[in-house]
Amino acid sequence: MRVVAAMSGGVDSAVAAARMLDAGHEVVGVHLALSQSAATLRESARGCCTIEDAGDARRVADRLGIPFYVWDMADRFREDVMEDFVAEYAAGRTPNPCLRCNERIKFAALLDKALALGFDAVATGHYAQIVDGPDGRELHRAVDPAKDQSYVLGVLDAEQLSRSFFPLGDTTKPHIREEAAARGFSVAKKPDSHDICFIADGDTKGWLTGRLGTAPGEIVDDAGKVVGTHEGAFAYTVGQRRGLGLKVPREDGAKRYVVEVQPATRRVVVGTAELLGVDLLDADHGRWCGPAPAGEVRVGAQVRAHGEEIPATATADGDRVQVRLDRRIRGVAPGQSVVLYDGTRVVGSATIARTGRVEASA
After folding, report:
1. Homologous superfamily of 276-361
2. Which residues are in the tRNA-specific 2-thiouridylase MnmA-like C-terminal domain (predicted)?
């Protein structure tokens, strides 16, 4: 097969490209330029897609003896990921930009361009496994639970999976670094990137304020009493406890958390931890990694990239999904994604629109 190996400049994508070459594929390395003003140097483990990263990727490609190109997708990334991120926070939701990037950039824009140029598939350094099943290729968890990235790949559909390779899913991260060192890759000890790649300093609140400005409002308790003020509701997310700056403490001294963000009224509602517990998720934008579930099905539901999988019942109706969890969990915000599993297999994902409690909805 002719395969585009997406090379970020990190150790994972470097080994993934090497393994695809070892498997006998015709491999071309591609680095995605996603920033219109990439910093010259990376700041520790924060951020990615910098000039330094492109140079690291090129050096690996040279060592492997494969062609290497940089594809400029900065405009697409800004529109489909960054602007979506801002719009979601402005609407009082909490998005996951990594899922949007995988859905719209790495496995839409990148794959579409690769296919248009005559390639057969795309390979990345994600930690997940693809298994041939009775209904086609299936997406499964990686063997290394600490690095499993199947959650952020839950937005892929069956057609995209049929054109994708994840060569690292059967290996742990320490072994990947050992393999990279044995291959003589200079990135063998390079730190992993983390946080949101386009907010390199990790200050999400400051980054959003720079784009949305200030919009002062009230912080109220669950009875409607004003207990503080804020400069922008977009800076708060359900489950947040730190940085609230409340001026009126509870009489019983109980800790308070954000339980709701109301962008229309510019209000942030806070309450005790008990109010955070939900077991009903109404979601939309359903994406299926194979056939869509028929009727009511038992699944495992995960709402964070490395969060706990909760037993649940899911019912799909077109691109809308209702998930009833077997027990309540805290800090689930509209805008987050719920990814559904059947054992290690990823069934699909959806974006949470509303949360609630089963007893309250009865």
Report:
1. Translation factors (2.40.30.10)
2. 280-352
Report the amino acid identity of residue 2.
R
Does 35 count as an annotated binding residue?
A: no
Q: Is 82 annotated as a binding residue?
A: no
Asked if residue 286 belongs to a known ligand binding site, the reply is no
Catalytic residue among 48, 49, 98, 197: 197
Write the DSSP symbol of residue 194.
Answer: B
**CA atoms within a 13 Å half-sphere pointing along the CA-CB vector of 137:** 15
Q: Residue 154, annotated ligand binder?
A: no
Structure tokens at 314: 């899911």
In the DSSP assignment, the letter for residue 43 is B
Architecture of 2-125+167-182 per CATH? 3-Layer(aba) Sandwich (3.40)
Residue of 328, 355, 325, 342 lying closest to 154 (CA atoms): 342
Q: From the centroid of its chain, how far is CA 53? A: 20
Q: Is 101 a catalytic residue?
A: yes
- Please check if 162 is assigned to a binding site: no
Catalytic-residue membership of 48: no
Where are any strands of DSSP class E within 124-225? 129-133, 136-140, 164-165, 217-221
> If the chain, 362 residues long, is cut into consecutive pieces of 10 residues, what is the mean pLDDT of each piece?
96 98 98 71 51 92 97 92 94 92 91 96 97 93 96 95 97 97 96 78 89 94 93 93 86 89 94 93 96 93 95 95 96 95 97 89 50
Beta-strand relationship, 26-33 and 2-6: parallel
Q: Does this model's pTM top 0.85?
A: yes
| Maximal C-alpha separation, the chain | 68
